Amino acid sequence: MSYTVIAVSFKRKPLSHLLLLGTLCVGMTAGMLPFSVMASSMQEASTSRHWNISAGPLGQALNTLGQQSGILLSYSTDLVEGKSSTGLSGHYTVQEALDILLSSTGLQSAPIVSGGFLIRARGQTGTDQTVLLPLMRVEGGYARSGFSSLESGEMRNAMRGDLAESLSILPSVRVADRSSSSLQQGDIKPAEFSIRGAAPYQNKLMLDGAAIDNLMDPAQREGLGNYTSVAGHSQSIFINSDFLKHVEVIDVNASASEGGFTGGVIKAETKGYQGEDSFSISRRMTRDSWTTFHVDPVQQGTFGDAAAQLPVGLPGEFQPNFRKDQTSIQGATRLGDIGVFAGLDEKTSRIRQKQHVSVDFAHFAETGRIFRPSEERTLDTYSRSGVLRLDMLEQDYLLNASLAFSEYDQDSFFINFPDSDFDSRHQGLNLSVNFAKNFGDTRMDLNVNAGRSSDERYFEKNIMDQYKNTTVYDGGMIGGYGELENEQQTLNTTLKFSSPLADTLSFDYGGELRWIHFRQNRLNDFIFNEYKLDFTQPLPPQIGLGSWSPVDQFKDRQVIYQAGKTRFSNLNSAAFAELHSDQQRIFWRTGLRLERDGWLGNTNVAPRLSGGIYLDDEKRYRLSAGANRYYGKSFLAYRLREKERDLIVETSRTSPTGEFMPVDLSRRWLYQDLDTPYDDEINLGISGPVLSGEAGLVMVERRGERQVRTQQDTAKDLKWFDNSGSSRTHQIDLYWRSTPAEWLGAYWAVNASASWMDKQTDTTYGNDSSGYLSSINGDEEVWFDGKRILKRDLPASNFATPVSVNLDLITRSPNDRIQLRNAFAFTNGYRYLRNLGRDTATGLSQYDVYKQGSTLRWDMSLDLRLLESKNSPYLRVDVVNVTDNQNVVSAESNVQLFGVGRQYWLELGYRF
Fold it and tell me: Which InterPro entries does its entry note (predicted)?
């Protein structure tokens, strides 16, 4: 019996290698490490990764798999002769990839004891060890394009363990500055993040094939004006990244099968059973006493007081006293033919805050601060998340299901508002089922999912009284906003077919349906009463400077936000078709996506085109380019703002004896037809192996059009949405990821990236509403850089840090007892935009550019297994900002906001 052993060793072409070296400027110090590749074949076999293998003859498909994985495959040539494969596209281990390629062929794979796999007829037992096969590592030519993928061990998780921190190593990702603010270290809500400069809510978030976007009011934050809205978040589920096997980010050249975004697509997959039982439990914590705070000198006193020196607002701006804890438990096992993984996580935070602030001149004489905080309160916040995943094992089809949930609950109040205590909640639940099978030469992938998410707030009081001629220190605002709930229910299915049309040509096609039901529910009437003095009569005596007693004022206005429900449903649909080919030196993909936005009533056509050439015969170095259009999302707020008017009744009068008269609200919000926002993308990139790793350079331009903005006519008390917004983003990304290697008796891995970004937009994505609810007119003239320009031509002030550099160095001992991670993040000194108010000469809003310093943060994580056995307790210590750098992350109102100083985290656990 004759066997074929796939053990191909490619020699690097000097010309292409030098071309890529010169283009990438690989002067990175990490690239100079004297690595020698020593990763084992079986370790590669157990690692999940992305595959893209074209349909065609089975022998060719197996050869491609061997080249891309570096795993030994041996088989009789007689077995594969005349057999074909439908190809492979997706994230799998080598074993899973083999099972898919061999399905419907009558063949199966079996591991060889010394490494690799033996291909044999289905039903044959044992591995033919009498055949001596030379075990050689394959150096393959697989090159990724259009996405980045992080395995569980590569994700950053020193501080928050959320998606933003996990993805911060990627060059296309920018994380909100405030997530690392030294002032708010008690916060445990996941940070928002941007991809390619787009708003955070314009990313598409997916978990196990299901979209987990929040399509209600994802950009809303809690505030004093939220009478009819509830704080939201772009993520409907707050998942613990420690439960994820890998996360894939598509940020350029997205396939026609992807839609509903203008930023990027994040595909997260939960862990599953990996061939052996496992279990772990851990307790993780940090304290304010383990943290160094960097605070602007003008804020030192107020930070120590734990209360903003403002008379009203939400607590939490200053958090000098906090404790955060996290408990996590997870495990995997096998029950018959079903693999099971389950995880449960709880994070808690306790912050001590001041609820009331008084004017105290004695305090001012002593401290220089006129406001004296008092009445300290304890605010508790908790966040729970969990996942249960089931996988069918050893079948000729793929079938898995996962159930994920999260709930976030936070105590709060309004500063100086008596009786304003309230509770805010964010909850999510999602069930996702995936099925894939080969039918002859065609592969079918099906996902069905259902989800529910809600944003809720519950005030203790349902009446708010405002005394306009009384300061907040004398009871000027009393009460709360009542109980209000937003709920989103989704039912979604996607279906994709992949068929070979020729040896090097494949056809993908399919569709998507997404039904969404929105509900806003006010559980009881909320009444807003406004009082003022009767200025037609002699004024009563003041009880304070510029303050009169509430009993001396009369009610002049009342607004009743009536209890009731506002409901509406929406059906979005999409169909796509795509051709892709990889032959000789040329590869290309062209597709078309047709999307129906039922919410806005739009049908949109999104063309996708990408391709390139291989620079060497072994197809390891590639030059690629693409031109694509991506349509974004629409939100409940676009129509809800108008619909909720039906539940509002407003009356007013001008004197204590006058009759209350109704106020016409019919035009307060005026809905008009909207178009779906979109981004046009062009890109150029080069990639290939460099210095025992994979490197690439990508240049991307995004033009955002028809972005939704809020317009306002204050004279007519009128607001409406339109598509006047636009943006333009340029970005250059450079990355290098090493192959696992041995050096100085330890194993090393390096993940490095550098990115430059420039963005122009008519709005700033750093404000409370991230653009779509802010009153901004892009055609408004402003004064900037000594001349009049349109507001839309101003540079962006957030999510556009010009140069960002990330470097992660992961070191582990040969027996895996010790793992050390050093993570470096750098941004260069750059200019930022500041609003200076009105220009006295022209009366226009005046903007200017100020210099902001560079930042450098070094985080270190040490994980130590205490016993030789794999079943052992462990200790983990994380040190954030090891060098305690004073990093300026932003500046607002002439006050610098610094990142957190040195902070310690301690984790104790047991792994079985």
Answer: Plug_dom, Plug_dom_sf, Secretin/TonB_short_N
Q: Answer yes or no: are the C-beta atoms of 254 and 267 closer than 8 Å.
A: no
* Residues linked to residue 711 through DSSP beta bridges, in sequence order: 720
Please, are residues 846 and 781 in contact by the beta-carbon 8 Å criterion?
Answer: no
Domain of 348, CATH number, reads 2.40.170.20
Rounded CA gap, 844 and 405, in Å?
49
The answer as to whether 395 is a domain residue is no
Domain total of the chain: 1
Residue 414 falls within a domain, yes or no?
Answer: yes
- Residue in the block written with tokens 């122009």: 760
Buried b (16+ CB within 10 A) or exposed e, 249-259: bbbbbbbbbbb
Tokens 């594969």, residue located: 80
Give the DSSP H/E element, type plus range, for residue 64: helix 58-69
Task: Give the separation between CA 639 and CA 569, rounded to whole angstroms.
Answer: 12
234-245, pLDDT tens digit by residue? 999 998 999 999
What DSSP string describes 486-517? Answer: EEEEEEEEEEEEEEEEETTEEEEEEEEEEEEE
Written as six digits, the tokens of 856 are 């450098």
Kindly report, residue by residue over 600-650, the tens digit of the pLDDT. Answer: 889 999 999 999 999 998 888 999 999 999 999 888 777 787 888 889 999
- Helix, strand or coil, per DSSP, at residue 647: helix
d(CA 908, CA 285): 9
At 242, is the secondary structure helix, strand, or coil? Answer: helix
pLDDT of residue 141: 30
Asked, for residue 371, whether it belongs to a domain, the answer is: yes
d(CA 43, CA 157): 23
Which range marks the domain in which residue 488 is found?
A: 147-378+400-420+429-911
Start-to-end CA distance of the chain, whole Å, equals 44
Band (pLDDT 50/70/90 cuts) for residue 138 is very low
Q: Do residues 622 and 603 make contact, with C-beta atoms less than 8 angstroms apart?
A: no
CA-based nearest residue to 476, from 555, 565, 416? 416
* Whole-number pLDDT of residue 271: 94
Dist. CA 486–CA 518, nearest whole Å: 7
Cα distance between residue 190 and residue 192, in whole Å: 7
Which pLDDT value is given to residue 768?
A: 39
CA distance 127 to 113: 9
- Give domain status of residue 313, yes or no: yes
